[in-house]
Design a protein that fits this description.
Blueprint (H helix, E strand, L loop, with lengths): L1 E3 L19 H22 L4 H8 L3 H4 L1 H20 L5 H21 L3 H30 L4 H29 L2 H22 L3 E3 L5 H5 L5 H22 L1 H4 L1 H4 L3 H29 L1 H22 L3 H16 L2 H11 L4 H29 L5 H25 L1 H8 L1
Antiparallel strand pairs: 1-2
Subcellular location: Cell membrane
Organism: Streptomyces rubradiris (Streptomyces achromogenes subsp. rubradiris)
InterPro entries: MFS, MFS_dom, MFS_Efflux_Transporters, MFS_trans_sf
Length: about 425
């Protein structure tokens, strides 16, 4: 899939020494995970500071909420475009550029005098995020090699789940104690630390990539890749329908108490971190298809049970734990599947996967809103369960296509 640049001290690939394997690759992966944490915090914390943002800039709460949609849609559009344009670049250069662009957007948001400027600054931040997450996943995979690809990617995406479990709650508290601009400075600090880490601890790796635009876009003619990407889109749409409207869905269980809601959100993110990491490990051992299928089934079951758990806080907490593990257990194995389909086009494929994930966040908000107005907050998880079943079908379709036409796909990719 990729090869590491020879280490200048040892002269061996991948940062190995004569005494054995160095810890340097894992240090680099952990730095990449921290960067994902910093970037994910901006995305997930915005919903928590909407009241402060709304009051400060004199806009309605629904208008303020569009900042979340703009961020997600920008990432969805820009991730594949930037992934294509930078596919032949060294990954460490892409990482440094993406963090710098993201930092510029965060700082711009903190200084923004009006809501339109906030939106513009968040577009800039989202461009950096859309470039960083795929580059970090590909770099982590290259650093650790095929045998530990799932765990490496899972470590990076665990940074995103940590943003939901830790970054967003902390940023929300900062915003409520001070103001929403203080939350932006908190994120800026995380980003600066991430930038230093990338410069100091992430070694240069070379990821193979097709030379021309036509070659880089060739994977889109691969039916297997399209099926896997479609499964990502549909599965995360199912997962985020409830998360986006968690306050409304579990209002009977929390009694409108923000602290209880924060506990549920913390449980979702924390168990998601665990589920995501071990999903990557299990994918290395049993195969990504098995782990993805099992996670989607568990997701569908947990969403079916949600209406029975909305009246009790204890029951809601139990369901949230299962729901979080299942939802985030899909991420790392899906990326591993894509890389294994066509290692030479990994940057583009992972960029597309990230784009579909962000698009799923935007779609879930729309579908969830329709559900709220038709069947009520208590039952919108049933829509999610039905969508999850569709995702399972798409996942299995990708597997069947891989078994039935590997030779044809290999010719297309070539």
């Amino acid at each position: 899939m990729s090869k590491s640049v020879p280490d200048r001290k040892s002269g061996t690939p991948g940062g190995k020494t004569d005494e054995g394997e160095s810890a340097a690759p894992w240090r680099g992966v952990l730095v990449l995970a921290f960067g994902a944490f910093a970037i994910g915090t901006d995305e997930f914390v915005l919903a928590g500071v909407l009241p402060e943002l709304s009051d400060s800039l004199s806009v309605g709460i629904t208008t303020a909420g569009q900042v979340v949609t703009v961020f997600a849609l920008t990432c969805a559009v820009m991730a594949p475009i930037l992934g294509t344009l930078t596919a032949a670049w060294p990954r460490h250069k892409v990482l440094k550029l993406s963090v710098l662009v993201y930092l510029l957007g965060v700082v711009g948001t903190g200084f923004a005098p009006s809501f339109p400027v906030v939106l513009a600054a968040q577009v800039v931040a989202a461009v950096g995020a859309g470039l960083y997450i795929p580059a970090a996943s590909v770099t982590a995979s290259a650093l650790m090699g095929p045998g530990r690809r799932g765990r490496a990617i899972a470590a990076v995406t665990t940074g995103l789940t940590a943003a939901t479990a830790l970054g967003a709650p902390i940023g929300t508290v900062v915003g409520s104690v001070f103001d929403w601009r203080a939350t932006m400075w908190f994120i800026a600090l995380l980003t600066v630390l991430s930038l230093f880490g990338v410069f100091a601890l992430v070694p240069a790796v070379v990821v193979g990539a097709p030379g021309g635009l036509r070659q880089r876009l060739a994977p889109l003619r691969d039916r297997r890749a399209v099926a896997v990407l479609a499964a990502t889109l549909v599965a995360f749409t199912a997962a985020y329908i409830v998360y986006t409207y968690m306050a409304e869905v579990f209002a009977p269980a929390t009694g409108g108490d923000g602290r209880k809601l924060a506990i549920l959100m913390f449980a979702f993110g924390l168990t998601g971190m665990v589920g995501n990491y071990y999903a990557g490990t299990l994918a290395d051992r049993f195969g990504a298809r098995v782990v993805v299928g099992g996670s989607i089934v568990l997701l569908a079951v947990s969403l079916l049970v949600v209406p029975l758990a909305t009246g009790s806080f204890a029951a809601a907490a139990v369901v949230i734990v299962v729901y979080g593990m299942a939802a985030w257990g899909i991420t790392a194995p899906q990326q591993s599947r894509l890389i294994s389909l066509n290692p030479e086009s990994a940057p583009l494929l992972i960029s597309l996967n990230a784009a579909f994930l962000y698009l799923a966040i935007a779609l879930s908000g729309v579908i969830g809103a329709v559900g709220l107005n038709t069947i009520g907050a208590r039952n919108i998880s049933l829509i999610g369960a039905a969508v999850a079943v569709l995702a399972l079908g798409l996942s299995e379709l990708g597997h069947r296509l891989a078994k039935s036409s590997p030779e044809r796909t290999a010719k297309v990719a070539a």
